[in-house]
Amino acid sequence: MSFYTSLTGLNSATAQLAVTSNNIANVGTSGFKRSRADFGDIFSTSPLQKSSSNIGQGVSLKQVSQEFSQGNISTSGNSLDLAITGDGFFPLKSADGLQEVYTRNGSFTLNDQNNVVNSTGQRLQAASVDSSGKADLTNLSALTIPPKTSGEAVETTQIQLGLNLPADSLVITADFDRTNASTYNKSTALTVYDSGGNGYLATVYYAKTQNASQDSPFSKWQTYFFVGDTQVKPALQQATDNVSSALFVNKYGDVLPKSDTRVVPSSGTTEMYTLDQLQDIRASSPATAIGSGLTTVNYNNGALVGATTGTLSFKIQVDNSGVYRDVNYALTASDFDPEVLSRNVEIAINNVLGTVADTPDDVSTTAVNEFKRNASFGITVQFDPDAAKFSIASGTTGDASSIYITSANDKAIALMGLADNAELVVEASPSEALRGKASEPATLRGETMTINTTKSVLVTSANKDFFVSVDGIASKIELPYPTTYTNIDSFAKALQDKINTVVDVESGRKVTGVTVSFDPKTKQLEFITGTTGDNASIQVTGPADWGLSDTEMQFGATTEWKKLAQYTENGALQYVKNGSQTEDATGISTKTEWWPVYLDRGELSFDLTGKPVSPLTGMPFETAFLQGGKGALNMSIDFTKSTQYSSAFAVLSQSQDGAPEGDLMGLNIGVDGLVNATYSNGSQNSLGKITLANFSSPSGLRQVGDASYLASATSGIAKIGEAGSAGFGSIRAGATERANVDLTQELVDLITAQRNFQANAKAIETSSTMTSAIINIRA
After folding, report:
1. What does the pLDDT look like over 114-124, one tens digit per residue?
2. pLDDT, average across residues 129-149
């Protein structure tokens, strides 16, 4: 019996030796877990036997189990090498997809299908993630690392070019030819992309067409855009202001943005006007009646015949006042000179029209203000010696001005040619721009008053004197004193009336139409002339009490306007219909007051400081059809960051919003298992999250080789969770977990197994010797 007992000891020692040898052999296997042999004694008895006298029958191997302690971490250069620090296993699927396998060996590579696999082709499982990186643990699939993006190509629609175009570049007058470098100054190139991510070389050429001058203080460059060998023409572009509000122009050439409340955008078909064509600047002019040419009978050798005696008379109506006024002038000895007669008749007209009483407001009708100024001011009379014609101009400029002259007597007809004719009737022009806009009067604002203006004001000997100069007529005036005015407004009215009584003692010309008002907010007096234009002037000086001690002469201004010229192309008038340029005038609006104003196609403009003037938004281009029927591109180029300085040509910035499909450039796996891929087109994609599996009894897993395991009834089913969460370790990329085998311990176990084997062998030897002795006794 002892022979068989010792034999079980030999078998157990051999098993322990085998387990220890296996541990030592796998000391370099990534993710390998040390095995341990568990033994139990053999003891058998029956119910009728005395158990205290039974002898054990040896030892048996109960199980070989794994110790799942943490192995050391070894770094590597492969981003797909993964190590688990803590509890958990990598979930894998067999190559056929039928078997679920678990391992701590994180040495992974990519197969031909871009799946992450181990050396046996088992695929690493990962959970899908949303845009925030949250994993769906119910949806595990093979982790795939695509080498290129798919469906991420972006078609180019916007190009940004920030350039410095040299200010000293020569103006190119030759027709553009991209094959001839002398027909353009500079060029730039970049790659644009279609919707499939295919790249095309785009080239922009720049030709300087104008240097800044006094007439046009802008430098201009023409651009030419090519995609491959195909030229892409600039599209029609409406001008904008510096906040990208579209610009419109009225009949006087006033350019205002759409955001201005005065602008009412047009609709339908409209005439086409460009910003560059708004160059015909004109001074606003008055309505002018022209008399007939004088014959030699009445005008000879520069002198008027019969102009020294008699009375010259006619009727005149100015600016649609509705009433003709009689002008009568008694000729003097000096009126043989046409210039003298012009001046004297001018004075006579202004003295009549400037003193017409206003229509007062009817206080009984509170809903309507009937006040109307009936007087007219600033009428001028001139003589043209070459044409021998007199002309009489209304005092106001612009298309609202008008003048009518009729009922001239014989003297007026003979000396001034005022016989009724069409040229003596000049109507207002409510629709067509002929004479421009109303000019500005001279306006004088005094300084802040030092007296109390909230109650009555007192004129005394100390503050009664004023000096007035209006349109060249100067005089001292004096307000009655002592006088108490109930308020400052009544004082202003008294001062106004006094100014309008001034008469030029030499010519007899009266000052008329000056208004005086008080601004309670600024405590200043304001003086405005009745006349307008460059010849209007006013200065009023007086005591500091009234804020008039340090005033200066102020002048009016003759307004300017721009004569519109409709854009033509090849001699044909151009129109705009639904945003497209056309020669078809069908459906043109007759009620348009504000027209869109456009830029010259493909043109860049810079001011004298080198800053861009136009365009101030992206320059659109017509559809670019790609060669070979590969599709089309619709693009615009933003030149707003470009400059024109004296430095050399430079590309300051260059970009475009298209992108090709991207090639894999880098891979990052976080400690939570989130896999992020970076591609050459700049996109970053979350490909999934590597999950971990754990078991209630990991030692119950079934080994299948390659440091891999299968779940069993003893281990329990796998629990899937995110790395770093409760019950699961974290993942370290670019590293592997070494075997948890301790060679020192294994060598000690090896010696122990050897001694156990030797001892059991000795026991067998002893048993054999005893058996031989018994046999010999019988012999």
Report:
1. 999 998 899 99
2. 87
Residue located via tokens 């990208």: 244
Counting every residue written for the chain, the total comes to: 779
E strand or H helix at 692: strand 684-694
Rounded to whole angstroms, the Cα distance separating 385 from 379 reads 20
Q: What are the extents of the domains in the chain?
A: 2-68+741-778, 73-151+663-737, 285-361+372-426, 441-560
Question: Where would I find the beta strands (DSSP E) of 233-388?
Answer: 247-249, 255-257, 270-271, 273-274, 281-283, 286-290, 299-300, 303-304, 311-318, 325-330, 380-384
Q: What is the pLDDT of residue 775?
A: 83
- CA 438 to mean position of chain CA atoms: 39
- Cβ neighbour number for residue 551 with a 10 Å cutoff: 19
Apex 460 CA angle, 455 and 463, nearest 5: 90
How far apart CA 434 and CA 443 sit, in angstroms, is 27
Pick the CATH number of 285-361+372-426 from 1.10.3470, 2.60.40, 1.10.150, 3.40.720: 2.60.40
Q: Say if residue 482 is preceded by a cis peptide, omega within 30 of 0.
A: yes
Cβ atoms of residues 319 and 376 within 8 Å: yes
Rounded Cα distance between 281 and 725, Å, is: 78
pLDDT, tens digit, for every residue of 25-69? 888 888 888 888 888 777 766 666 666 666 777 788 788 878 888
**321 — phi, psi (to 5°)?**
-70, -20
The C-alpha atoms of residue 613 and residue 642 are separated, in whole angstroms, by 10
